[in-house]
Amino acid sequence: MSKEKIMLGMPAYGGNVQVLCFKSVLRLFQDPRIAAKYTLEVIALQNESLISRARQELAKAAITRGYDRLFFIDADTAFTPDQFLAIVDADKEVIGGTYLKKSLQKPGLNFNVTREINEEMLRRFGITPTTLAGFEIFKREYCKESPIVKVNHVPTGFLSIKTDVLRRLSEKVPQYLSGVCDPNRVFYSPEEVEKMKVAELFPVSVQNGTLESEDWGFCRLCRENGIEVYLHTGVVVEHIGQITFHPSMFQPAEK
Predict the structure, then answer these.
(1) Close Cβ partners of 216 (under 8 Å, ≥ 6 residues apart)
(2) Model-level pTM greater than 0.85?
(3) Cα separation of 220 and 199, whole Å?
(4) What's residue 191's pLDDT?
(5) Which of 136, 144, 189, 208 has its CA 20 to 30 A from that of 249?
(6) Cα gap 119→153, rounded to integer Å
(7) Are 186 and 244 a contacting pair, CB within 8 Å?
(8) Residue-by-residue DSSP string for 179-234
(9) Exposed/middle/buried for 136, CB within 10 Å: 0-12, 13-18, 19+?
(10) Taking the CB of residue 166, how many other CB atoms lie within 10 A of it?
(11) pLDDT at 195
(12) What are the residues whose beta carbons fall under 8 Å from the beta carbon of 94, sequence distance 6 or more?
């Protein structure tokens, strides 16, 4: 039985990767459970200041290099092999974990359920699923049979995408020429131009009066094309800023 080939795509602006993230990735390669089923390779993209373009270049690399899956790992996250396995073993086309937004004033998790669930939780409990208290209620009420739940949006910082999804969507979105060109050349053959094209899979645009980020844009494209998006509610990874954000820091200390 052949192993599934997974590209660990890491946007790393300025070539910077947090030490905790590096250690997390290293543990993936050291875990025998992962080695038995998956072949991993890290492809990092440095010095790209536009995150949507970085993700699109990594998506193109996953397609052209023949990987079965692209797993985005942002350079400011930290996680465990168990969390990685929970995502990839779920075998969904698009599935991710979540993490806290970098805010101490209003701590909240990064994902978005359907409008109906949001309204129902507000009506029944007076709280939304992305708050820390609301997340516990959400898991209790809506994830009784499985920690994996269909949602509208998941963040891209710890996200698994089957490469076939990227291929299918690439045929339905605008394409642009990659900026990676030879400055000493003026003319390119049609074949060369074709190879330089990149699909806009992670668009940033105004939707319904809101400026939509690239991860929300990708999830919208998926849903518009019949591809379901899933959140693994058992996977909450660390989000590293000036401090490391994790739900445990907001839990009251035991007496």
Answers:
(1) 112, 153, 207
(2) yes
(3) 15
(4) 82
(5) 144
(6) 16
(7) no
(8) S---TT-----HHHHHHHEEE--S--EEETTEEE-HHHHHHHHHHHTT---EEEEE
(9) middle
(10) 21
(11) 83
(12) 154, 159, 160, 161, 162, 165, 219, 222, 227, 228, 229, 230
Is-contact 246 110, C-beta < 8 A? no
Query: What beta strand segments (E) does the chain contain?
Result: 4-12, 38-46, 69-73, 77-78, 94-98, 148-150, 158-162, 175-177, 197-199, 205-207, 210-212, 230-236, 238-240, 244-245
User: 113 in helix, strand or coil?
Assistant: coil
Sole residue written with tokens 């797993």: 71
SS3 4: strand
What pLDDT does 253 receive? 63
**Rounded CA gap, 36 and 29, in Å?**
11
4-112+151-242 — its CATH code? 3.90.550.40
Q: Which two tokens stand for residue 11?
A: 């946007």
- Report the alpha-carbon distance of residue 202 to residue 53 in Å, rounded: 8
CA angle 241, 242, 246 (to 5 degrees): 50
**Tokens 């900026």, residue?**
179
